[in-house]
Amino acid sequence: MPSSIIAPSKIGKGKSITYHPPKAIIDEQAAELLGLHAGDGYISCGVWGIRCNLNDESSVQHIIELARNVLGVEPSVRIRKDTFTIRSGKNKQSISS
Predict the structure, then answer these.
(1) What's the pTM value of the predicted model, to 2 decimals?
(2) How many C-beta atoms lie closer than 10 Å to residue 30's C-beta?
(3) Neighbours of 69 (CB within 10 A)
(4) How many whole angstroms separate alpha carbon 70 and alpha carbon 46?
(5) Which burial class, exposed, middle or buried, applies to 60 when counting CB atoms under 10 A from its CB (0-12, 13-18, 19+)?
(6) Is 59 within 8 Å of 67 (Cβ atoms)?
(7) Residue 70 to residues 8, 10, 12, 95: CA-CA distances in angstroms?
């Protein structure tokens, strides 16, 4: 499982990389990702996302790792105005699958 730090200059599309099926149980990492999503996230047309302040790069790195570990996907990261948006690249399996 990759655990590399992503430089803001290298962020972009997740290219639909799938590492493993999503977790089927709610563990500490899944609960944390769900909490972040409840507070700062959205779902639109089958795509999930979480927004972070542009000054909070360590949180972006952590959310990327959570998405990899919990959902089994490589998320895409976009910079928009004053926020990072971490989201699934395309329609993915839901966490309840």
Answers:
(1) 0.72
(2) 18
(3) 17
(4) 17
(5) buried
(6) no
(7) 22, 23, 20, 8
Question: What pLDDT does 2 receive?
Answer: 46
Tell me the CATH architecture of domain 12-87. Answer: Roll (3.10)
Alpha helices in the chain (DSSP H): 28-40, 57-66
Question: Is residue 68 a contact partner of residue 2, using CB atoms and an 8 Å limit?
Answer: yes
Using one digit for the tens of pLDDT, what is the confidence trace for 8-63? 544 555 556 777 788 888 999 999 999 999 999 999 888 889 999 988 889 999 99
CA distance 65 to 40: 17
Tell me the domain boundaries of the chain.
Answer: 12-87
Q: What's the chain's Rg over C-alpha atoms?
A: 12
